[in-house]
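Figure 2 data, in text form.
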Amino acid sequence: MKNNEILTMEKKKELIQLNLEMLKGILENNGMAIGFNKTDDNFMFFDREIYIKSGKFNGFQISIQELSY
């Protein structure tokens, strides 16, 4: 795709959905899950099994502001 190419909203949606599906596969393959911390506006990536067994968060957070421009 060229830098000057203007994408339709539908195409942007398709690209984002494709990338989210890839993220889902990466998380599943690595035993991870994703959540959202409303208090801090952070996405939480954590070990799914540890969370299920103990209820404890073992992972990292990324601020939604880091994903904005």
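Caption note: The first helix runs from residue 9 to 29.
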